[in-house]
Amino acid sequence: MNQIRTDIEPSLDLFLKETPMMDVRAPAEFEKGSLPSAQNHPLLDNDQRHQIGLCYKRKGPEKAVALGYELATPEVRKQRINRWLDFTKLHSEGYIFCSRGGQRSHITQEWLAQAGCHYPLIKGGYKAIRQFLLEQMDTAIRDSQVIIVSGRTGSGKTQLLLKLDNAIDLEGLAYHRGSSFGRHIYPQPTQTRFENNLAIALLRNHHYFPDKPLLLEDESRLIGRNCLPPALRDKMKSAPLILLEEPMEHRLNIGIQEYVVDNLNENIAVLGEQKGFDYFCTSLYESLERIKKRLGGKRHKVLHDLMDNAIDLHRSHNDLTGYRPLIDNLLTWYYDPMYDYQLSKKTGKLLFRGTQEEILQHYPNIMIQHQRN
């Protein structure tokens, strides 16, 4: 006979094991912020939650609870229970949570128990989970040594980080490439969701690699619209550096792969071939427009003409060569001067500079050198 599991407080173990969780809050609450291992199976939909909220304000808690049970018709109740049972069968090790560990979690538990399934909840709900994560994130930032991987746009910093176990891909968490042309077709996570994902990545790294420095890509305060925690940003400003340097040809190849091939494929996968291509082209022009002021009118016109030519060649002959002069000039006129200025402001010690191959080859010695200092 299976042992009945008990309700728990938020814990490190939940996130180290990527424990499945059933978020029974309304979809609007889930969209605002939840957890990467959580699935939304709400007790109340957005409209029902709104109705009950108004009733609570106007008539008090007893009337609001009564309205909740009134809205839970036999058909609605059956649908909810069946969905929850499906989740519990797939995830026998999971947990329930609502906003504060109150009525919604307990009603979900009660209905499941009546259907023969005893399933535990997380005490304090999402509010307690988020507080736990923020505290863990503060601790991990405070206790971690940080090394910054820096390098010009297109040098392959993210690819390098993905080959190292003690690294966190901040751009991946923010779903943004960290540049004016770095947007994806899907929106970025909300700030709350980004913070939750970052906190989990930090606490996992801190747990599994306690004696290794944390490697991060050189980022500004904002990655798209997602903001880094001030404590982490402050630590990054003075952290020692590994400088990734690659020749222009290599950087052009990465630029075409990421900003043309990958972006276009992503758009086509979502919108279909024609609409995907049109959206891709529109995004390029919008990105160029965002940096017009910094470029100046003359250079902006040159780049706009190059973009026209590149897109025409791409559309008519499926030829990507027109993007090379466009990306070359973007790097030379916009990205490289901005990077060189930012690098001149760095105060951290330079540990090593070289290509990705050289960095990977010398990486063990770089870590030894860092630990000695």
From TrEMBL:
<dbReference type="GO" id="GO:0002098">
    <property type="term" value="P:tRNA wobble uridine modification"/>
</dbReference>
<keyword id="KW-0711">Selenium</keyword>
<dbReference type="InterPro" id="IPR017582">
    <property type="entry name" value="SelU"/>
</dbReference>
<keyword id="KW-0808">Transferase</keyword>
<dbReference type="GO" id="GO:0043828">
    <property type="term" value="F:tRNA 2-selenouridine synthase activity"/>
</dbReference>
<feature type="domain" description="Rhodanese">
    <location>
        <begin position="15"/>
        <end position="138"/>
    </location>
</feature>
<protein>
    <submittedName>
        <fullName>tRNA 2-selenouridine synthase</fullName>
        <ecNumber>2.9.1.-</ecNumber>
    </submittedName>
</protein>
<dbReference type="InterPro" id="IPR036873">
    <property type="entry name" value="Rhodanese-like_dom_sf"/>
</dbReference>
<dbReference type="InterPro" id="IPR001763">
    <property type="entry name" value="Rhodanese-like_dom"/>
</dbReference>
<dbReference type="InterPro" id="IPR058840">
    <property type="entry name" value="AAA_SelU"/>
</dbReference>
<dbReference type="Pfam" id="PF26341">
    <property type="entry name" value="AAA_SelU"/>
</dbReference>
<dbReference type="InterPro" id="IPR027417">
    <property type="entry name" value="P-loop_NTPase"/>
</dbReference>
